[in-house]
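Memo to structure team: turn this sequence into structure tokens by end of day. - J.P.
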Amino acid sequence: MKKTYHLCLSAGEEIMFRDLEDYHRGFNCFALALYKTGTTGLAEAFMSTHVHKLIQTASPDDFMHVFRHSYSKYFNHKYQRMGRLGEKVHFTMEVVGFNHMVAAASYVLRNPVHHGISPVPYAYHHSSANAVFRKEMGKLPHSDLLSPKSYYRYIGKGAVYPDTYKMNSSGVFLRESVLDIPQMENLFLTPRYFNYCMTRKSSEEWELEQEKDCNGCQPFNLRNIERSVSQSDLEKMLRFESGKADYRQMSDIELCTGIDAMVRERFCKVSVYHLSLQEKKIIAEEFHRRWHIGELRVRRCLLF
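Reply from structure team:
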């Protein structure tokens, strides 16, 4: 029997999605894993170092195995890397009850806000926030869909998918063709309530609402959706939630794309995984000098 779960796969300080192609391939692997395992996808958010998923499945472990195996294979081939991508054991939390589900979906979709990447969930393009209530929220219809004959370029020749999956010209499946968006819209009932949940601040009141479900489960909050979060990290997330972030700074995807271009053009290497320590230091110093990127962020993107 299917149950609802929140899953999170993290790579710690390693970047899992370095450029736009990686984000698109990551979602495509997610979509294919849903179909292969008979899983229903509800909401997701792909971040540079981790990915959150809200799904309904009989076996969350089987689903995650299929997803991470296919994406790791792609990632390791592209960057000529070896080994497991991401933590050994992914995080799983069962979701039980109406208020629990609303909170779980809301925290997943608000993840980019909590990490200071975007001021509102709708400004982030690697989650399903913009797939819910598209018409009512004034989202423009999609155009330039690819012919199914071209899908293999972005998912591989042997991939199996249903006829209902549609792909745009960027080579990524449309989220509303993959996820159970009607179920999400029935959960939130109205666009107004959905928008309220997307902009609502974390609070004890929200946790008390979840206790009404009497499910014996932990309430969803920043501490348990982001494992091993420290007090300082929690305080930072709450500041970001209040809009106190510099959204003009270079994003991880922009930073990694710039670094990877320099790796290929200046050092003639396939990827950062093949750089020497001295080469990494040269790149880090240049990015810090030219774009004032913090040392910790550059080192993370350079894997040292």
